[in-house]
Structures are given as C-alpha cells and as structure tokens.
Specification:
Chain A: It holds the Pfam family Sedlin_N. The complex is a heterodimer. Chain A is of the alpha+beta class. Chain A has 4 helices and 5 strands; from the N terminus they run ββααβββαα. Chain A has one domain: Beta-Lactamase (2-Layer Sandwich), CATH 3.30.450. In chain A, α3 packs antiparallel against α4. The longest helix of chain A has 20 residues. The radius of gyration of chain A is 15 Å and the shape is globular. Chain B has a single domain, classed as Trafficking protein particle complex subunit 3 (Muramoyl-pentapeptide Carboxypeptidase, domain 2). Helix content of chain B is 46%, strand content 12%. Classes of the chains: A alpha+beta, B alpha+beta.
Chain lengths: 148, 215
C-alpha cells in the first residue's frame, strides 16, 4: 500500500483534466501542491520518451527524493509546433507514488485507461475538457485502493 | 433474440465492459441517420464548402474516438509512431471495423512527397445518396474524410484530408478517392526528435543513455 500517491490525467496543452489524491496517509497542507508541481515537472521527460517506443506504459520516468513518477500514454495526441521544435503532447495518465509495485501500477493504469475510453466515447464529451463525472471519480479511487 | 439470455443492465455506462459486443448495425438505420445529418446541415449553410466542412467536423469527432478505441481493442495498447504504420492502420483496421472490409487500395502520390490516396469503388456512406447536378463536385464522402483526419490528427500526424470523385472508364459510377496531404511537421518530426533526444540526453542517467542511441 502506498503511503502517498497523486494521480493526474493530463490532456493536450498540458492542462490537467482530472486529478485525485489516492494515497492512504493523512494529507499534509502543502503536499497536494507539491505533488502537482512534481508531476508537471515530469511532463518534459515524458515528451521525449513518448516517441521512442510504441508501448503505452512508460514505467518510471522521473524521481524526486523518494517519490517516483510513472506515466502511461494513450493514443490521442496533439502536435504543437513551437518555433523550431516540435512539442508532442499525448493524453497522459501520470501517477506520483512511493511504492515499488510495478505490476500493480501497470494494471491500475490499464483499468483507468479503459474508464477514460468510455468517457471519451461519449459524443457529448469534448476531448480535453475536465472530467466531472462523480461516478468516474468513485471508480478511480476504488481502483487505487485495489491496486496501489 | 429469444433464448439468448437476459442482458445484464448496467446503471452507468462506466460499468459496462468495453468488449466487442455486437459488431454490426443495421445499414438502413445508418443510411437514414446519415441522410438526416446531411439534410440538417444543408438547411444550416449557404454554400457547398461549408457543408463539406461540417460533415468533416462530424467525422473528425468519430475519428478521434475510433483511434483510441481500436488501439485498445485491436492492437493491445500499442501506439503507432511511424507514418506508414498509421496509414496501413487506417487502410485496414479502421476500414474493417467501420465498413466491414479493408479499403480497396492505398497509394502514394506521385507529384508530391507527402500525399497519399485511399481509394474505394463505392463508399458505404454514399451508397444511398445521389447528388443533383447543381451541387457540382460535392461528395458526402467528406464525412469519411473527416474520420480519417480525426484518426491521423489525434495520432500525431496532422493532415488535410479530402474526398474526390475519380471517373473511371468502363464504369458508370465514379470511384471515390480520399486524398491525404500531410502537414510539413510530419516529415520534419523524426529528425527533430532525434536531435532532441541526443541533445537532451544529459538529463538522463548513464543506463538510459544507451537506450536513446537506438533510433
């Protein structure tokens, strides 16, 4: 069981469309902001790695003290042309955690990915907008308790 | 459907399994729906170009979702990172799932480097549609062009996709060709990516450095 874990779904343009603290420890005041900051900082590394492999699960891409960031990249993708450099941004599922349970994390990502696809299939859902469904929230937290 | 067994009723769509389910939808139902879609858009616009653009936008939304869904179902969560890979994905997998068969042919354009064409003897969406003479070269295949554009755009290969009628001798009805013209970034991407990886390798540890040298 991880003590601290922060899960975030980041869409194109680096805008988070869903975030949740799924750790089992008591939350500190500043912990939430720190976790989000670390996750945002890891976005650059993800962009490099995403094009080098056709797999979706990118394992751990960054470390901060003893917290590890793992990332899972989905197929939906948007290119940003910035000056002379191409910045490619997939929809990313990012998890900040301190456990070493790789298989559990991979299964967690796969299940949340399926939930995300079901949300995406809704024709009235605009891709890249915030996910506001409480049912989705409940399910993600249940999955986190199960796998993390 | 007597004797199949009771279908489990799910209270929320998120609980429903994402499995294949029923693959087929009634063609006549789709034809009615599509004709209503075209007629509705006809009342909203003044000219043909606008109508084509609206059909394309409708197809774009479908394409985005089809890409994500098919990557999950058919390819076991492996993304496409190569141009030819994504083109053959569209040509075979997407066509098979949407229309029940692979597209007739995939060709590379001879005039320009980044043009490709997918041809079909008769598009499924056009089967029950006839255009009056005063609409000129309007093609309801713009919907399918929108689907292809949605798939390519969301996979990271921006392109301009259009549908054209190509008359063939010996056949009454013209063939339909989907013309795909990739944006400039698509050709440049692999080189810039290589540049980016090599020069950003200072961020990574010693072990990771070995990995990045395999293009």
């Amino acid at each position: 069981m991880a003590n601290t874990a922060c899960f975030m779904i980041v869409a194109r343009n680096d805008i988070p469309i869903y975030e949740a603290e799924v750790g089992s420890a008591a939350k500190r005041e500043d912990a939430a902001q720190l976790h989000q900051f670390i996750l945002h900082a890891a976005l650059d590394v993800v962009q490099d790695l995403a094009w080098t492999t056709s797999a979706m699960f990118l394992k751990s891409v960054d470390r901060f003290n003893d917290l590890v960031v793992s990332v899972y990249v989905t197929a939906v993708f948007k290119m940003l042309v910035c000056f002379f450099l191409n910045l490619t941004t997939h929809t990313r599922l990012m998890l900040l955690h301190d456990s070493r349970n790789e298989d559990g994390i991979k299964s967690f990502f796969q299940e949340v990915h399926e939930l995300y696809i079901k949300i995406l299939l809704n024709p009235l859902y605009l891709p890249g907008s915030r996910i506001t469904s409480t049912h989705f929230d409940t399910k993600v937290r249940a999955l986190a308790r199960k796998y993390l | 459907m007597i004797g199949v067994g009771k279908m489990k009723l799910y209270s929320n769509v998120l609980d429903k399994p994402l499995s294949k389910g029923k693959q087929e939808v009634s063609l006549s139902a789709f034809a009615f729906l599509f004709s209503e879609l075209v007629q509705y858009n006809q009342t909203q616009v003044d000219n043909i170009a606008e109508l084509e653009r609206r059909l394309e936008d409708a197809g774009y939304a479908v394409g985005a979702r089809v890409l994500e869904l098919l990557c999950n179902r058919e390819k076991g969560n492996r993304r496409e990172t190569r141009l030819l890979g994504i083109l053959s994905f569209v040509h075979s997998t997407v066509w098979k799932v949407l229309f029940g068969k692979v597209a007739d042919s995939l060709e590379k354009g001879t005039e320009h480097e980044d043009e490709y064409m997918i041809s079909e003897k008769e598009l499924l969406v056009n089967r029950f549609i006839s255009s009056p003479k005063d609409m000129g070269t309007f093609n309801c295949g713009a919907f399918v062009a929108g689907i292809v554009k949605g798939v390519l755009d969301n996979a990271g290969f921006p392109a301009v996709v259009t549908a054209h009628f190509v008359p063939i001798e010996g056949q009454q009805r013209p063939r339909t060709t989907i013309l795909i013209k990739f944006a400039d970034e698509v050709n440049a991407c692999p080189y810039l990516l290589l540049y980016f990886i090599l020069f950003s390798s200072t961020k990574l540890s010693g072990n990771d450095l070995i990995l990045t040298h395999v293009p």
